[in-house]
Design brief:
The complex is a heterodimer. By secondary structure, chain A is mainly β. In chain A, the strands form 2 sheets. In chain A, strands 2, 4, 5, 9, 10 and 11 form a 6-stranded mixed β-sheet that branches. Chain A is globular and about 45 Å long. The mean pLDDT of chain B is 94. The chains are: A mainly beta, B mainly beta.
């Protein structure tokens, strides 16, 4: 099956710093989503981004489908950005089956 | 903004008991999913459901599991005889279209003793 690898596994930042999270996937996909799992365990949609670039406030994401990777940028990080960031992908004709990466655990220190 | 809701938020059960986890997807959505996350691990797909049928299921989704859409609003996951290893957070999700943003509910934390 498709492999999804996220890096780095852990990241510690000072408030105000910028960061880039990476997601590599091993096959072509028709769906890619980024999620933030907050300390209460909720999975919050950040982006639906099978290709191209999107921005939402301090967050932006880019997916280069032909090279099978996606990047999530967090600028001017805040303590509320702490949590685990997951990338999830779906291959064609898989009935909506999202395959998740292992996540990047981000800790933003005040 | 519409959201997916799940009940209960936390369920504790004895091994061997049946549990039903309930979800109310976003009202105009057509595709429904269940995922689970064992503590400290990644999220795993269980099953997808469309037009009152299972579209796709994982190897985790064995005969102990079943899904149902009993009415126009609820979507349920039943575990017939729970095992210790079923302890996990269970997430429901829904989408309007088949290939689209999946919106996740807040999860039900299942603890099997």
């Amino acid at each position: 099956g498709i492999q999804v690898e996220q890096s780095p596994p852990d990241l510690i930042l000072q408030e105000g710093a910028n960061s880039t999270l990476r997601c590599n996937f091993s096959d072509s996909v028709n769906n890619l989503q980024w999620f933030h799992q907050n300390p209460w365990g909720q999975l919050i949609n950040l982006f639906y981004i099978p290709s191209g670039t999107k921005q939402n406030g301090r967050l932006s994401a880019t997916t280069v489908a032909t090279e099978r990777y996606s990047l999530l940028y967090i600028s001017s990080s805040q303590t509320t950005d702490s949590g685990v960031y997951f990338c999830a992908v779906e291959r064609d004709n898989q009935g909506g089956k999202l395959i998740f990466g292992q996540g990047t655990e981000l800790s933003v220190k005040p | 903004e519409p959201e997916v809701t799940q009940t209960p938020s936390h369920q504790v059960t004895q091994m061997g008991q049946e549990v039903i986890l309930r979800c109310v997807p976003i009202s105009n959505h057509l595709y429904f999913y269940w995922y689970r996350q064992i503590l400290g691990q990644k999220v795993e797909f269980l099953v997808s459901f469309y037009n009152n049928e299972i579209s796709e299921k994982s190897e985790i989704f064995d005969d102990q599991f079943s899904v149902e859409r009993p009415d126009g609003s609820n979507f349920t996951l039943k575990i017939r005889s729970t095992k210790l290893e079923d302890s996990a957070m269970y997430f429901c999700a829904s989408t309007l279209l088949g290939v689209d943003t999946q919106y996740f509910g807040p999860g039900t934390r299942l603890t099997v003793l």
